[in-house]
Structures are given as structure tokens and as C-alpha cells.
């Protein structure tokens, strides 16, 4: 069986309205996500304004090479999912599926690099608590934020990768139309993950590098 | 590499336009990321963090406008996006951090 037309769900009477509802619904969900991450970033900036030297000292301890590589990987994955979602909307199967596959590969590469970075951080005694290596006031608080923000971000990435995999496999099995609105909604979610990282990069990795 | 060479067969016109637009935005995003990396190592009179956040804001706008399709004339997604983006702190003295800090400064000063 091959699904060529997206299934119409209640209460929608047409594909166009159903697609629009999916997009608006996802944007509303992204608003709640912005509250979550935005609140944490505000708290981070507030604490940083109270302990600027300690935060800058701690930020200089993060792995700039992996942080930069992950930034480039995530920006590229955002471009790939943009191509994948738009090609899916146009029914361009030979373009959509490779682009979605590339998104998956880039997202997995991000998580693998992140795993190596976390391992190095733990071995370098950068986990807050007894035995924490840095002594500058505020540096431990920086790493409490670092672990919370990067951990939450990675959890969102796992969810996004799961959704991309699920929808793509359903298309391959003929259970879901390539023109399904789910791809556009999922791409919006993935872009938000990218935007969150775009702000984490200067705050967690670039701060304190100039020595000023 | 041409779109034809990438996947084999003749590429539809819509796909070629999509690829060209995405490629331009993607290159812009990569360039901005590398610029922010380079500027982080230059002493910019203590403005490094602001510069980094400013470049991040430009990247966010590029992603939202082109990749998240806010350039399409659909009002509800735009309204939801503006409401959502308001929660991302802006790097100015008027940001929520600066507002939140004032009571704490007053407490410290007694």
C-alpha cells in the first residue's frame, strides 16, 4: 500500500486548512518551548551579571572545537531539514528522503560529539559538587547551567530525531503520505532546537575567550 | 555539483530554486558562526558577549524567516512566532535580566 494523499483528520474538511492548523499548532507549541529555554537563559544571564569573572573563567574551560563543530553540524542539519520538509510538501520523494536522512545523520553526529564532550568534562572534574576543579566564584554555577541547558537541549534533539525517523519510516512503508503536514511541523521543531543552540554557543563557548 | 549530478536525473525547477535559496542561507549562517568565533578572541572593549548575542540574533532571524517560512504571508504563524521570540532575552539594558537585577542590587546596598 502506498499513501499518496495525506489522511484527513477531524474536524478538517480540506488538506489546506489541516496543514495550516498543524503549522499554527506547532508554532504555539514552540512558544511554550521558548518560555522554557528563554526562562533558563534569563536566569543564566542574571547569574552571570552577578558573577561575570567566574562565568567567563568557566566558559573558557568548555571545548571550543567541539562546540564550534556542533554549531556547524546543527546549522547544516537545519538546512537539510528545510530542504526535506519543502521537498516533501511538493511531493519530491527523491529529494525529500535523502535530505531527511542527512538531517538524521547530522543530528546523530551532533549527539555523538556531545557525548565525547560530556565525557571529557566529567573526566576534567567539571561536574558541580565535591571535587569540582575550578575555584573562581560563580564557575560552579556556570557549569550547573551548562549541564542543565545542554542536557535539556540534547533531550529535545533525541525527541526530534525520533520523530524524523518515525515519519520517514512510515513513508518508506507506505503508511504515511510524503505530503503529510507532519514533516513541516517537525521541521519547525528542529529549527527551534537549532535556534536554541545558536544562543547557547556564544553564552557557553565563546564567553571569556578574549581574556578581556 | 549540479542538482542533476547530485541525485541523478533531471531536477524539477521547484527543487532547484529550493536548493539555491537554502544553500545561500546556509552559507550565510556558517559565515556568521565563524565570524562570531573569530570575534570572541578579539578584545572588543568588553562587548564580546553582546557581539556574540547580536550575531546569534541575526542567525535566528535568518532561520525563522527562510527555514521556518515566516516569509510566507500567513498571519497566525507570524503572530505566534513574535510572541514566542519575545521570550528570548535581548542583549540590551532593557532585557529582563537588567530588570531583575535591580531589586537584588538594592538589597545588596541595603
What can you see in these coordinates?
The complex is a heterodimer of chains A (about 210) and B (about 110). Chain A is an all-alpha fold. Chain A has one domain (about 30-205): Four Helix Bundle (Hemerythrin (Met), subunit A) (Up-down Bundle). Chain A contains 6 helices and no strands. Chain A is elongated and about 60 Å long. By secondary structure, chain B is mostly helical. Helix content of chain B is about 70%, strand content about 0%. Chain B contains 5 helices and no strands. Chain B has helices at about 5, 15-40, 50-65, 75-85, 95-110. Chain B is flat, with a radius of gyration of 20 Å. The N and C termini of chain B lie far apart (about 65 Å). The interface between A and B is large, with 54 and 56 residues.
Q: For this entry, what is the oligomeric state of its chains?
A: heterodimer
Amino- and carboxy-terminal Cα gap of chain B: 67 Å
**What is the architecture of chain A at the second tier of CATH?**
Up-down Bundle
Mean pLDDT of chain A: 93
In brief, what are we looking at here?
Chain A has 212 residues and is an all-alpha fold.
Topology, pairings included?
The complex is a heterodimer of chains A (212) and B (110).
Chain A: H1 15-50, H2 52-59, H3 64-89, H4 93-123, H5 139-172, H6 181-206
Chain B: H1 3-7, H2 13-40, H3 48-67, H4 75-85, H5 96-109
Helix pairs in contact in B: 2-3
Structural features:
heterodimer; A: 212 residues; mainly alpha; Four Helix Bundle (Hemerythrin (Met), subunit A); 76% helix; elongated; B: 110 residues; 5 helices; 71% helix; 0% strand; flat; disordered N terminus
Amino acid at each position: 500500500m502506498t499513501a499518496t494523499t495525506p489522511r484527513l483528520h477531524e474536524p478538517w474538511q480540506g488538506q489546506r486548512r489541516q496543514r495550516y492548523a498543524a503549522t499554527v499548532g506547532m508554532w504555539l507549541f514552540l512558544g511554550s518551548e521558548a518560555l522554557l529555554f528563554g526562562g533558563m537563559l534569563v536566569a543564566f544571564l542574571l547569574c552571570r551579571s552577578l558573577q561575570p569573572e567566574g562565568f567567563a573563567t568557566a566558559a573558557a574551560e568548555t571545548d571550543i572545537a567541539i562546540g564550534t563543530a556542533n554549531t556547524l553540524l546543527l546549522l547544516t542539519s537545519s538546512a537539510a531539514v528545510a530542504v526535506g520538509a519543502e521537498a516533501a510538501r511538493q511531493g519530491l520523494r527523491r529529494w525529500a528522503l535523502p535530505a531527511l536522512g542527512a538531517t538524521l545523520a547530522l543530528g546523530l553526529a551532533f549527539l555523538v560529539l556531545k557525548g565525547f564532550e560530556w565525557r571529557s568534562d566529567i573526566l576534567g572534574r567539571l561536574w558541580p559538587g565535591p571535587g569540582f576543579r575550578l575555584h573562581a566564584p560563580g564557575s560552579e554555577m556556570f557549569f550547573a547551567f551548562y549541564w542543565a541547558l545542554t542536557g535539556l537541549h540534547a533531550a529535545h534533539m533525541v525527541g526530534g530525531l525520533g520523530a524524523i525517523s518515525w515519519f520517514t519510516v512510515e513513508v518508506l512503508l507506505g503508511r504515511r503520505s510524503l505530503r503529510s503536514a507532519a514533516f513541516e511541523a517537525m521541521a519547525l521543531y528542529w529549527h527551534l532546537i537549532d535556534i536554541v543552540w545558536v544562543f547557547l554557543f556564544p553564552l557557553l563557548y565563546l564567553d571569556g575567550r578574549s581574556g578581556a | 555539483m549540479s542538482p542533476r549530478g547530485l541525485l541523478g536525473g533531471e531536477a524539477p525547477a521547484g527543487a532547484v530554486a529550493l536548493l539555491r535559496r537554502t544553500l545561500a542561507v546556509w552559507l550565510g549562517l556558517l559565515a556568521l558562526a565563524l565570524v562570531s568565533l573569530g570575534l570572541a578572541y578579539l578584545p572588543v572593549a568588553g562587548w564580546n558577549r553582546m557581539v556574540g548575542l547580536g550575531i546569534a540574533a541575526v542567525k535566528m532571524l535568518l532561520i525563522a524567516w527562510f527555514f521556518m517560512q515566516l516569509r510566507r504571508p500567513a498571519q497566525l504563524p507570524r503572530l505566534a512566532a513574535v510572541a514566542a521570540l519575545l521570550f528570548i532575552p535581548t542583549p540590551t539594558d532593557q532585557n529582563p535580566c537588567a530588570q531583575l537585577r535591580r531589586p537584588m542590587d538594592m538589597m545588596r546596598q541595603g
